Amino acid sequence: MRRYGKHTDEDDIRQRPNRKGNRPRTNIRPKHEDAAEGMVLTVDRGRLTVLIDDVPVTAMKARELGRKAAVVGDRVSVVGDLSGNKDTLARIVRIAGRSSVLRRTADDDDPYERVVVANADQLAIVTALADPEPRPRMIDRCLVAAYDGGLTPLLVLTKSDLAPPDKLLDLYGDLDIPYVVTSREELENGTAVARVREQLDGKVTAFVGHSGVGKTTLVNALVPGDRRRSTGHVNAVTGRGRHTTTSALALPLPDDAGWVVDTPGVRSFGLHHVDPSRVIHAFPDLEPGTENCPRACSHDEPDCALDAWVAEGHADPARLYSLRRLLATRERHEGD
Predict the structure, then answer these.
(1) In sequence order, which ranges of 159-235 are alpha helices (DSSP H)?
(2) Cβ 69 vs Cβ 112: under 8 Å
(3) CB atoms near residue 38 (< 10 Å)
(4) Range in 145-159, 213-227, 299-313 the model is least confident about
(5) Residue 74 CA: distances (Å) to CA of 37, 92, 229
(6) How far apart (Å, rounded) are the C-alpha atoms in residues 298 and 146?
(7) Is there a contact between 143 and 303 (Cβ–Cβ < 8 Å)?
(8) Are 259 and 280 in contact (CB under 8 A)?
(9) Residue 305 and residue 292: Cα distance in Å, rounded?
(10) Which of 329, 211, 210 shows the shortest CA–CA distance to 270?
(11) How far apart are alpha carbons 194 and 189 in whole angstroms?
């Protein structure tokens, strides 16, 4: 039986009552045109600290962002309480595009990709020359991750008072990577800090290294006002250090000279996420020679055109060796 007449009015249509008393759901999302822009400083159990106009604000990710996560270094748009007062909470409603991404996996068999930091300009790979002994394969893996993510690598060699740097520098000389060598005495008197600062000026630099190499000590010296990080010791039996940094943290350098991002100490740097074909972009002198390579060339096989490219004098043979060593790193498990 027809309940309503031919010409019905809105008032004639009966609507079901909303028992919860809230507004009906809609797919139309607010534009948040008045959202404030900020930078993520750290992430801790779902709570993010965002710097907005020099005020650190605690925020959480808005539900509308879905699975998209914000990481340290991200530029984000925030709404809500931006006072930064205790027990206040704002919402991150947008995450801007990233200029670079440093990523790692737990190991080469782990498909779960972890974004360490976004929008960093360079990656400072901190390595001790002794106590603990340097791990070249670890350095190689960090280099691959830097090249893949769009970061410029920087070698920072610590504890030169315990061992000379020449052997390690010779190993990476053909890659033309900038480096700084420091000693404990130089860290104490400030001369090492000044040299490192020159390499960081005006840039966002992520610091990475396995535990015990002096990474956090160096960061504390670069940013003397920050003492949240504590330094640990090196185990005399294993030669490995205690993890003293538990979450990534962005810290401003004095005089607005740039940013450093202190990251947790790592014991492995998985490269499951890296496409080996992108590593060649870090070798502009070799890249043109790949035009005649066979399809899906690994650049380490008999038909690789890079051998002829180097033989014709277009590039130094040492550069091809360095490329192949880095590519081989992608296939090896971290064993030392």
Answers:
(1) 166-172, 184-189, 191-200, 215-222
(2) no
(3) 24
(4) 213-227
(5) 10, 11, 22
(6) 20
(7) no
(8) no
(9) 6
(10) 329
(11) 10
User: Can you spell out the DSSP letters for 89-150?
Assistant: -EEEEEEPPPS-EEEEBSSTT----EEEEES-SEEEEEEESSSSPP-HHHHHHHHHHHHHHT
Cα 332 from Cα 269, distance rounded (Å): 11
DSSP 219-274: HHHHSTT---S----B-TTT--BPP---S-EEEEPGGG-EEEEE----S--B-TT-
From CA 283, how far away is CA 135, in angstroms rounded?
23
Distance between CA 301 and CA 299 in Å, rounded? Answer: 6
**pLDDT above 50 (res 56):** yes
Which residues have CB under 8 Å from 324's CB, separation 6+?
A: 299, 300
**Residue 184 pLDDT > 50, yes or no?**
yes
Of residues 178, 165, 173, the one with CA closest to residue 124: 178
As a dihedral over the C-alpha atoms of residue 108, residue 106, residue 116, residue 326, rounded to 10 degrees, the angle is -30
Higher-confidence residue of 27 and 65: namely 65
Residue 227's pLDDT band (boundaries 50, 70, 90)?
very low
DSSP classification of residue 202: T
Beta bridge partners of 262: 207, 249
If one counts every other C-beta atom within 10 angstroms of the C-beta of residue 58, the result is 17
Which H helix or E strand runs over 323?
helix 317-331
Greater model confidence, 149 or 18: 149
Cα-Cα end-to-end distance for the chain: 81
Give me the pLDDT at residue 233, please.
38
